[in-house]
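Help needed: design a sequence for this.
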């Protein structure tokens, strides 16, 4: 649960669109523990995590 919460806090912070926020939150909820740990590790241990967060958001949202 801590992995998912950490990833949600990092991933949703700059977002404003409620539909996309829901999509990312649902995607993080559906992730396995290993996948969530991988993404959180990528976000936490990079000097510039913006690209990792952008990639995660892109993978978890569907264009309208």
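Sure. Designed sequence:
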């Amino acid at each position: 649960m801590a992995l998912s919460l950490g990833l949600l806090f990092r991933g949703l912070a700059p977002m404003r669109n409620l539909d996309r926020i829901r999509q990312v939150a649902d995607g993080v909820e559906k992730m396995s523990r290993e996948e969530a740990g991988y993404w959180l590790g990528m976000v936490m241990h990079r000097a510039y995590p913006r690209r990792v967060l952008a990639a995660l958001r892109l993978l978890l949202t569907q264009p309208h």
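The CA atoms of residues 49 and 55 lie 10 Å apart.
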